[in-house]
Design a protein that fits this description.
Chain lengths: 161, 428
């Protein structure tokens, strides 16, 4: 169990992360991450990264490359950035240890592919976050996004999911 | 001859220096392509390592037609049409798995891994003429396998598998020869990517060296190689593109890799010390000198017409959906007997291929924008002249070859396409 104060603090962090992603606020989003980051979009709930391919499996260094690419001005698949808004819901928070939290949530994201088709893409699924308290502040070190349609043909996933 | 009469005069739409925009947008042309190229000609469908054990199956398509790859009790690989022989129900809905039989949930007919009918409820009312032995699943009539790569043709007769692959089978060999056991493996799963674009833009793009510097500039900048001169013959890249005939094409980076002679430039420049068991196994299998050559030259970057793309240590193929839609699949090419390579290969594929990667989202966005641009009917033609005046037959191998940024590979694709589509027209 977490206290009401902890719950609100974690929830506020999750909503802030979602807003940075929605608004393609790349520097702010990247600054949330710890050095042992894992940003993961698997293709199935039981995927094993040792042997299975993932849509995205970024460590901290690859997150930095991803952000550099998005900020280069030539990431044509995100130029201009997709207008996006996501709803994060069904939040369940549990302590991993004294300094860390595990968060499970559902999400739905409307994304408009203005770079090409102008399709309104609907993305949805489950998210697992892991947060760590460092010098009083919450930091993100794990985010797993299990898309409902991860094993189906999907459109470009070049934005921050 | 099956299908409707062929109506399109392709010889008026395809020239060596230009092709007509309607080839990408016309629904009648799309249907003719399905009839001729995908539902009659040879296409890639999978690899034998995807069904390694008896009872394994994997769902695929040939063109628009659903099939199942199975490994039966006699260890044979079968390609079965995924349609119950009774009333047409899609028999197998799981993407892959292991089974002893396939049972149709509609009326309960069941079929073996070899497609033969195994059982049905209440057989008595079917009449005396009903013979279960004649009611098996339809089998794909022609299957060709080279180094485990499975190709198929839905036509009973036609060009042989050997003639279809032609000289380009050495491209498949070059991939498999990077395994100390001479075999590749597909087992990491497939990423699936929806392009709202015509299917032909994929093979056209995949051996196009010209687009890299512009389409993929963001990746080159993000990884710090924007000024390396790669893909730019004016900056000294000696890589070449090659027309293997039969619509098979290649972008060969080995000339660039040989300049420095460093191994694994195609694998992030990984140092051989990091792969000691792989290096030792390769040297034991092929000798030091041959191994050193393979480690410099690397795997192929090539298209086997129409739908297989060997992209270094990635395997890619696609299914057309409609004139305006195609689904592209990606998986790492894993090397049997080389576990040190394979985990890195998975990470490399995630970086390069798929809807969330650093490369393919740009290709998809460009293909989709091409498709949208082609709604404008003028100028009527797409220009394919690049390198036409400087491409030449390489005396060493007899193959039409040109500089890395030339459109020789696009012209090779269209020349073969025209041959197939014109033959179909005259035969109808």
């Amino acid at each position: 169990m977490v206290s009401e104060q902890e719950y609100r603090e974690v929830e506020a962090f999750i909503f802030k992360e979602a807003r940075y992603a929605d608004e393609s606020a790349y520097d702010d989003w990247e600054a949330l991450w710890e050095d042992d980051a894992k940003y993961w979009v698997p293709t199935s709930p039981d995927a094993d990264t040792e042997v299975d391919i993932s849509h995205i499996f970024d460590n901290r260094s690859r997150i930095a490359t991803r952000i550099r690419q998005l900020k280069s001005g030539f990431r044509h698949s995100q130029t201009p950035c997709s207008p996006m808004r996501r709803i994060i819901s069904n939040i369940e928070i549990s302590p991993l240890n004294e300094h860390e939290y595990e968060v499970a949530a559902n999400f739905m994201l409307m994304e408009l592919a203005v770079q090409s088709t102008r399709d309104m893409n609907l993305w949805g699924g489950a998210i697992n976050y892991r947060l760590r308290r460092v010098e009083g502040e919450l930091r993100l070190f794990y985010k797993k996004i299990m898309l409902v349609d991860a094993d189906e043909p999907i459109a470009n996933l070049a934005f921050l999911i | 001859m099956t299908g409707r009469p062929k109506a399109t005069a392709y010889e008026n739409l395809i020239f060596k220096e230009k092709v007509h925009g309607s080839l990408y947008t016309d629904p009648a042309i799309f249907q003719e392509e399905m009839d001729t190229i995908f539902h009659k000609g040879w296409v890639f469908v999978g690899h034998t390592s995807e069904v390694p054990n008896i009872g394994d199956f994997s769902r695929r398509f040939i063109g628009r037609q659903p099939i199942i790859i199975t490994r039966d009790r006699d260890d044979n690989v079968n390609l079965l049409l995924n349609r119950c022989s009774h009333r047409g129900n899609l028999l197998c809905t799981r993407a892959s798995g292991n089974a002893s039989t396939f049972t149709c949930p509609y009326h309960g007919w069941s079929f073996g891994l070899d497609g033969g009918m195994r059982g049905m409820p209440m057989k008595v009312a079917m009449g005396d003429a009903f013979k279960p032995s004649e009611m098996g699943l339809a089998k794909v009539p022609r299957v060709g396998i080279h180094r485990g790569f499975i190709f198929a043709s839905l036509a009973k007769d036609g060009m042989s598998f050997d003639d279809y692959l032609g000289d380009a089978k050495v491209l498949l060999d070059r991939a498999a020869d990077l395994s100390p056991e001479g075999e590749i493996t597909i087992s990491a799963g497939w990423l699936k990517h929806r392009f709202k674009a015509n299917w032909k833009m994929l093979p056209e793009n995949n051996t196009d060296g010209y687009h890299v510097g512009s389409t993929h500039l963001s990746m080159l900048l993000a990884t710090g190689v924007a000024n390396s001169g790669a893909f730019n013959e004016e900056m000294g890249d000696p890589s070449v593109i090659r027309d293997w005939g039969g619509g098979h094409t290649e972008l060969d980076f080995a000339p660039r890799y040989r300049e420095s002679g460093r191994p694994f430039q195609w694998f992030g420049g990984t140092r051989p010390e990091k792969l000691p068991n792989y290096v030792a196994a390769m040297e034991a299998a092929y000798g030091k000198q041959e191994t050193a050559k393979r480690f410099v030259d690397g795997p192929p970057h090539a298209i086997i017409f129409p739908n297989l793309f060997l992209a270094e240590l990635n395997i890619t193929y696609f299914y057309p959906v409609s004139p305006n839609e195609v689904i592209q699949y990606y998986t790492p090419l894993l090397l049997k007997g080389a576990p040190e390579m394979n985990k890195r290969a998975i990470r490399q594929t995630e970086g390069a291929m798929g809807p969330g990667s650093f490369l393919l989202p740009e290709d998809a966005a460009m293909a989709e924008r091409n498709q949208l641009g082609l709604e404008a009917q003028y100028p009527e033609w797409l220009d394919l002249r690049r390198g036409l005046d400087r491409e030449a037959v390489d005396a060493e191998n007899g193959l039409l070859t040109s500089a890395v940024s030339d459109e020789t590979t696009n012209r090779a694709f269209w020349r073969h396409y025209l041959t197939l589509m014109s033959e179909a027209k005259s035969a109808s």
